[in-house]
Amino acid sequence: MVDESNLELLKKLKVKDSKQLTKLQREDLFEKIKAISEYLILIVEPEEIDAALNNPDLNLNWLEGLKIAEIINSLEPDEAIIDAPSNNIPAFKEFLKKHIEVKADLKLEHKADEKYPVVSAASILAKVIRDREIEKIKTEYGNCGSGYPSDPTTQEFLKENHSKYDKIFRKTWATYKRVTNSKKQKSLTDF
After folding, report:
1. Same structural domain for residues 24 and 94?
2. Domain span at residue 157?
3. Does the pTM exceed 0.85?
4. What is the distance, to the nearest Å, from the Cα of residue 127 to the centroid of all Cα atoms in its chain?
5. I want to staple 15 with a disulfide (CB 3.0 to 4.6 A). Which of 74, 75, 114, 120 is the partner?
């Protein structure tokens, strides 16, 4: 959350969508953004994601909505600009309103992190924290790659370690399910 008086400072930092910046650029902006903002960073653990996805009343978008509402309730902004994860923005906005306990104008758009510096700044904070969490996992468990399903190192790490370090994986993750299901299947040579 950035006070209107700091919006110009944020623009001068030339923040943009975190995906358009290098890791070094994001790290450089991280402390500068924190210095001119109020923020709350929530880390959602695999168990919480799995519990939400195993609940028939939730999905990833609704879980994200609950976390957005938690942040808004904590920071109490006058206005919240949200990068809408759902294709159905009106329904997502209604879901948020049910969980937001403070008075805040809500502006939801797709790709808001490309249009609004305050959303870009939030994107940068989130990406830096994600990268740091991946580094913690690497330190404790070994090279797991980027953690993204398209990364061959992540895929290989998952294949080799899905049962050994199962608490770090989302069991509802399609990539995890593919690996564990392939381990259960037998080939003709197994008979």
Report:
1. yes
2. 142-184
3. yes
4. 8
5. 120
